[in-house]
Amino acid sequence: MSAAGAMRDFDPCMGRKEYLYPHPDSGKKERQKQEAPMSAQNVFSDLVQRKREELEKRIKAGGTSEPSYQLGANSFTEREWTKLIRSVDAVQEEMREAAERERELEKEAEEVEKAEREELCIIVYDVDGIRCIEALSGICQWFIRFADRGQYRLVQEIMEGVEKGTNPAPVFQEDFWNSLL
What we know:
Layout: H1 40-60, E1 68-71, E2 74-77, H2 78-117, E3 121-125, E4 129-134, E5 140-145, H3 149-164, H4 174-180
Antiparallel strand pairs: 1-2, 3-4, 4-5
């Protein structure tokens, strides 16, 4: 093995020498004497020393000891990249929440509009029967004739409960009254 330590002297495919560090034979002509081959420990020590010098230069220049990666025109350290991604995620989450709130508000507005469109009705009952009359037009939507006085008293009790707020019966629905009477 040569002075490069980590590289091959001979590549069987290409037949040329490859070195990680300058080979003593390929150095400048003024270097006449042979250097001792570098051991793996020396190669590792040299790499660590170069990295240390690089970090020192970066820190002295006002930079950081973290490696930075070029992304387009910007350069980010891992910490800066994580911070950027978190802020983008936070903005996206806020946008999702705002869209959800908007959908809920639209749904509520549709419900209010639907309730306003529905015509208001008045329930009227007497000894003859019970009827539902549209408040604006006065048109009777449905009418149920009582068969006896007991049905009248039952309707009277239910409507008194609705007036007091104790009976939440669906009094505007004809099916409710048909099933009850």
